[in-house]
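Fresh eyes needed here. I'd like your take on this protein's tokenised backbone:
***
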Amino acid sequence: MTGYAPGGERLAPAVRAAAPERIGRVSSVVGLGIEVAGLEGAVGDLVAIGEPGADTAAQVVAVRPGLLTCMVLSGTAAHPIGTPVRTAPAAPAVPVGDALLGRVIDGLGRPIDGKGPLPPLQHVALAKTAPGPLERARITSPLQLGVRALDTLVSTGRGQRLGLFAGSGVGKSSLLSMIARGTDAEVSVIALIGERGREVREFIEDDLGPDGLARSIVVVSTSDEPALMRLRASLVATRIAEWHRDRGQHVVLMMDSLTRVAMAQREIGLSAGEPPATRGYPPSTFSTLASLLERAGAAATGSITGLYTVLVDGDDHNEPIADAARSILDGHVVLDRALAITGHFPSIDVLGSISRLASKITPRDRLADATALRAVLSARRSAQDLLDVGAYKPGANARVDAAVQFEAAIDGFLQQGMDQQSTADGAWDSLRELTRAFGAAA
């Protein structure tokens, strides 16, 4: 018979099309969770709630006997009891490729920058496991970030994961934009999670600028989008960075902010029926953070240097998310509100910031210069009360004397304008001149 396919493969599509469609119904709605009866599924499956053509995409977040708990993936439509629910196709895969550079996409990989549809691209699955602990390459070379204070006093290696800890309005996003323009990484992937819609365009056009955008891929999920979309955007950005790393490239993954990813997971976990634990965060929040952060880092070829902002609650650097992130990351940068108020930008608290890999990626002579400046800054902080009341006597401490004498030079080194370009070698040369001046004055 012409066109006959052995095993009935020719008829398989027709059989599937003729199979009865199973339809569930919304049985209850509690908070953000939608319970569905009469439909089978697993966690992560997609469903469509409502009549075809006017339905809402949702995802299964918990499974109980006879019930699925779902949360909407997009849209905010109300769903009364009895609304039909159908199984939906799998979520679209993640678009990857060099043609994404300079584009802005959402958590589903759709362009939102008004530049038209994406060109034909390869698509990869969203899920991917982190490299095994013994498969990772050791971090031995520094990565230029383009910020003098970071390149010298908080040196970052290719494949390191660093947290930027600060309260709201202290300059985290501005610092990220400086890094996107000044880093020598081949690709920058920027995830804006839970940002105010107004700030997204300002960040892209003013802070990042055309030059920074041209070498970046931006993934956006604003604060008004459902929790699942915010979480998915963080996973999409990480997956895009992994694809470039697997090609042997060195990538900088910047996520603003990790705290809002945790808040999205808190909404999902509580809606799924998890018990609230530390300050209302369910246990899944902390496991989600760990699995997300571990996917960055160095692999056998290529690397992902992760820079994650952490919005500390009430400037409390020991709140649960900040504490959990600090325990996983390879270093932390603290932004100080007191410095920001005085116009000191970037408002990096050098003494409160540390890179756990600085000693492994920095030559001894440069490390000595960084240590010398830290010692002078520490001495100045210890004697600040005496200096404020005029009780300090010059000559009592050589390091305090150096801090007072070279205060303007130190501030000039630590401060940097948004549009001021800096190279790592130039920053180290400037630091060497400064520390030599300390020695000459002594």
The CA atoms of residues 189 and 241 lie 6 Å apart.
